[in-house]
Amino acid sequence: MQMPEMDGGGLIQRIREHVSKDLPVIIITTQGEEHSRDLGLSKGADGYLTKPVNTHELRETVMKYLGRN
Questions:
Q1: What pTM value is reported for the model?
Q2: Alpha carbon of 28 to those of 9, 12, 57: distances in Å?
Q3: What is the domain partition of the chain in residue ranges?
Q4: Is the pLDDT of residue 2 over 90?
Q5: Do residues 47 and 24 lie in contact, with contact meaning Cβ atoms separated by under 8 Å?
Q6: 51: number of CA atoms within 13 Å, CB side?
Q7: Tens digits of per-residue pLDDT, 9-41?
Q8: Does 56 score more than 80 pLDDT?
Q9: pLDDT category, 49, cuts 50, 70, 90?
């Protein structure tokens, strides 16, 4: 399901402007193409995972951004 009111890049921009510049943002999406990943990261995402999400990879990514490697 796509986001109904804005795209992910717009959401990341809002988070960075109105919530926190330092809050880690991890995209979880069905869009696994390399250009989609590059676009998401260029918009300010810290991580990019594709569905179905590997639970080990999700845990490792979250722990990385929580500083608990």
A1: 0.81
A2: 13, 13, 11
A3: 8-66
A4: no
A5: yes
A6: 6
A7: 889 999 999 999 999 999 999 999 999 999 999
A8: yes
A9: very high
- Residue whose entry in the numeric block shows the structure tokens 């804005």: 6
CATH number, domain 8-66, options 3.30.300.20, 3.40.50.2300, 3.40.50.300, 3.30.565.10: 3.40.50.2300
Using the structure block, give the residue that is written with the tokens 């991890």. Answer: 26
Tokens 């990019």 appear where? 48
Of the candidates 62, 65, 8, the one whose C-alpha atom is nearest the C-alpha of residue 37 is 8
DSSP 47: E
List all residues 6 or more positions away from 12 whose beta carbon is below 8 Å from its beta carbon: 25, 43, 44, 45
